[in-house]
Specification:
Blueprint (H helix, E strand, L loop, with lengths): L1 H18 L4 H12 L3 H21 L1 H7 L1 H27 L10 H4 L3 H13 L2 H16 L5 H25 L7 H25 L1
Helix pairs in contact: 1-8, 1-9, 2-3, 2-7, 2-9, 3-7, 3-8, 3-9, 4-8, 5-10, 8-9
Subcellular location: Cell membrane
Main location: membrane
Keywords: Cell membrane, Membrane, Transmembrane, Transmembrane helix
Length: about 210
């Protein structure tokens, strides 16, 4: 029992270390939380995707990915291009006049739920770091725990679920800050810089 508990704790801490980072996926979840737009579906998609990838890595998918590096290269190109596009769209919003930016997020909330879900899926599955960190690294560490590898996977999955719930739900508390158009311009500016930078880095590394 102690072995499994220690493995679960190790999974929780490892998962937190790999997941808690500034990246397109986390930024998108936070944005949805701030805008109060389809928060629960986005949280569910990101958390469930991570659970699937963690389980796949523990089950041995990491070895398959390692044997086919082309998969990672394709993900880098597709994911990099997609993230750059999202960054450019954020830059365009940032450069609009203050009058063109609504302080009321109702316009954003009316956007299709399926668009939000599709974006969350793309930012997760087209991100090559998902395969390098969640599948390869997490899978290797989990298997080092022997019989406790599935306890490790449970701990890592819990870290993902808790993290996405925190930033998605926590984003709602920031909504009063974004009652002013200028706050939205600053947010979009930061998002544009981070996403374009990360997307360009992915394309270069490919």
């Amino acid at each position: 029992m102690t072995t499994y508990l220690l493995a679960a704790i190790a999974g929780l801490l490892t998962g937190a270390g790999l997941i808690v980072a500034v990246g397109p996926q986390n930024i998108f979840v936070l944005q949805q939380g701030v805008r109060r737009a389809h928060v629960n579906p986005v949280i569910a998609v990101c958390a469930l995707s991570d659970v699937v990838l963690i389980v796949a890595g523990v089950a041995g998918l990491g070895a398959l990915v390692s044997a086919h590096p082309t998969v990672v290269t394709v993900a880098k190109i597709a994911g990099g291009a997609y993230v750059v596009i999202l960054g450019l769209l954020a830059a365009r919003r940032c450069l609009r006049s203050s009058e063109a930016i609504t302080a009321n997020p109702d316009e954003v909330r009316t956007a299709s739920r399926w668009v939000a879900i599709g974006t969350a899926l793309a930012l997760t599955w087209l991100n090559p770091h998902v395969y390098l960190d969640t599948v390869l690294t997490m899978g290797a560490i989990a298997n080092s725990h022997g019989n406790g590898k599935w306890a490790f996977a449970i701990g890592a999955s819990m870290a993902s679920v808790v993290w996405f719930t925190l930033i998605g739900r926590g984003g709602r508390r920031l909504a009063p800050v974004f009652a002013r158009p200028r706050a939205w311009k600053v947010l979009d500016g930061v998002v544009a810089v981070i996403m374009v930078g990360m997307g360009a880095a992915l394309l270069v590394s490919a």
